[in-house]
Amino acid sequence: MMEVLIGWIKLTSKVHEGDDFGYNIFLESVDALILGRNTYEKVLKFAVLSYKEKRVIVLTTSKIKIPFNLANTVTASKDSPQDILKHLSDDGIKHVYIVGGITIQSFLSLGLIYELAITIIPLLIGEGKQPFGSIPTDITLTHSKSTFYDFGYIQLKYIIQRE
C-alpha cells in the first residue's frame, strides 16, 4: 500500500511502488507546461518540481515567487492563452501540457485543448470541485485509448472533436 496525494485528495491505495501511470513517458513527449498559479503553488510544496527541465509558464495576474533553482525554466505570464500558445509555437514548441483546473477550463472553453487524459480513481467523493467546471458548450470526445491498472485505476484518453 502506498499513500497518494492528488490535488486535495489524500488516498491510501494499492498502487505499486514506483508505478507512474506512464507519466514519465508522457512527460518526455511534452515540450512545455502551462500551469495556473494555484497549481504551481501546490506543486512547489512537493519536495521536487517533477517537470524535469521542461519550460513552465505560470498563468497569473499576481506576482509569484520563483525559486532560484527554477529561474531558468519557470516564468510567469499575464498573457491570454491564445497569445501564450502563439509565443510557444513561434519558439518551435508543439506539445504543451496544460495543468490545473481553472487553467484547463479556460483552454477548453477557448477550444485550445486537443486531447484529454482522465484517470479514474475508485473513490466516490460526496462533495468537491468539478474537474472541468462550467464550460460554454458540450464538448464531443472520441475515445483513443484505455489503460487498466490491477489496483483499480483506469486511465482514459480522448481526442476532442472539432466542428
From TrEMBL:
It comes from Candidatus Nitrosocosmicus arcticus. One of its GO terms (molecular function) is 5-amino-6-(5-phosphoribosylamino)uracil reductase activity. GO terms for biological process: riboflavin biosynthetic process. This is Bifunctional deaminase-reductase domain protein. It holds the Pfam family RibD_C. Residues 30-146 form the Bacterial bifunctional deaminase-reductase C-terminal domain. InterPro entries: DHFR-like_dom_sf (IPR024072), RibDG_C (IPR002734), Riboflavin_Biosynth_HTPR (IPR050765). PANTHER family: 2,5-DIAMINO-6-RIBOSYLAMINO-4(3H)-PYRIMIDINONE 5'-PHOSPHATE REDUCTASE, DIHYDROFOLATE REDUCTASE FAMILY PROTEIN (AFU_ORTHOLOGUE AFUA_8G06820).
